[in-house]
Amino acid sequence: MLGRLNHVAIAVPDLSIATASYRDQLGARVSQPQPLPEHGVTVVFVELPNSKVELLEPLGENSPIAAFLAKSPDGGMHHICYEVEDILAARDQLVATGARVLGSGEPKIGAHGKPVLFLHPKDFFGTLIELEQV
Amino acid sequence: MLGRLNHVAIAVPDLSIATASYRDQLGARVSQPQPLPEHGVTVVFVELPNSKVELLEPLGENSPIAAFLAKSPDGGMHHICYEVEDILAARDQLVATGARVLGSGEPKIGAHGKPVLFLHPKDFFGTLIELEQV
Fold first, then answer.
1. Burial category of B26 from C-beta neighbours within 10 Å (exposed 0-12, middle 13-18, buried 19 and up)
2. What is the mean pLDDT of chain A?
3. A6, A19, A25: best mutation site toward chain B, by most B Cβ within 10 Å?
C-alpha cells in the first residue's frame, strides 16, 4: 500500500526564522511562503532531491497545528505523509484492521490539491500519518 | 548543503508490534530487526521507494531513545536524517552560524556505517536533525 515518502511536516512558531534557517544555515532550496487558509497553515516547501519537508506556521483561528505548538512551543515534527495509489482502498483496508481515520473518514483535498486522510496517531505509535493519493 | 532525506526515525515502545503494523496494516516492505548495541537501539528499516523510515526500540542501558519514550510512551518521530557530501565542512559551516552539534562535535560512525552528527533540536525548531555523510 505505502508508496513514496511524500513529505515530513514540521510545525514552527515563526516561519520566517525557520525558512531562513533551512535556506541559509542548512543550504536547502525553499519556496515562497504559501498561505493555505482552508488548511489553517502557511507553508514553506523545502525541496530535497528525493522528498520534501514542509514548514508549517499556524494561520487564522482553529489552526490544526495550534494545539501542537501550545504543547511544543519550539516546534517539532508534526506528521509524515506517505503516498498511496488509491486512498479509498487504503482507507477501507486500514479500517478493516481496526485503524482509525481522523475526522469524517472521507478524504479531503490536501495542500497539494490531492485527496488526503489522516490516521489516528494512537494507532501508529504516536506518529500522525497522512496518506495522499497521487 | 542538504542532500537527500535519508530517513525519518520513529521511536516505538514495541518493535514487533510496530513492524507488524508497517508490514501488515500499511503494506510496506520491512527488514529483519537489527540490534545495534553500540547505538543502544534495535532497528527495523521500512523501505519506501524514495527513502526510508527507521523504527527504533531501546536496546540495553542508556539507550539514546529511552528518555524520549519515557516522555512519549506511545512513541513518536524522533529525528530526521539529511545527507551531506562533506560532514566536516557541513559541521564547520553550521557551527560558524551558531548552531550547536551534540556530543563531542566529532562525527561518529552511524547505523549505516557512515559518519554522522546530530544538531541541537533547540537550534532547529524542536527537530532533532542527523546529518549523514554519503
1. buried
2. 96
3. A25
The percentage of chain B sitting over the pLDDT mark of 70, rounded to a whole number, equals: 100
Active site residue B132: no
Grid coordinates 515534527 are at which residue? A77
Domains of chain B, start order: 5-133 (3.10.180.10)
pLDDT (tens digit per residue) in A63-74: 999 999 999 999
Question: Using an 8 Å Cβ cutoff, are B17 and B9 in contact?
Answer: no
Are A53 and B5 within 8 A, CB to CB? Answer: yes
> In chain A, what residues touch B74 (CB-CB under 8 Å)?
121-122, 125-126
SS3 B36: strand
Among partner residues A8, A121, A125, which is closest to B80 by beta-carbon distance? Answer: A8
pLDDT in tens, B42-100: 999 999 999 999 999 999 989 999 999 999 999 999 999 999 999 999 999 999 999 99
The ipTM of this complex is 0.96
* Integer CA distances (angstroms), B77 to A32, B89, B125, B128, B132, in order: 26, 27, 14, 10, 18
- Which pLDDT belongs to residue B112? 87
H-helix or E-strand spanning residue A16: helix A15-20
Which residues does chain A have within 8 Å of residue B58's beta carbon, measured at their own beta carbons?
A: none
* pLDDT value for B111: 85
Residue A94 to residue B25, Cβ atoms within 8 A: yes
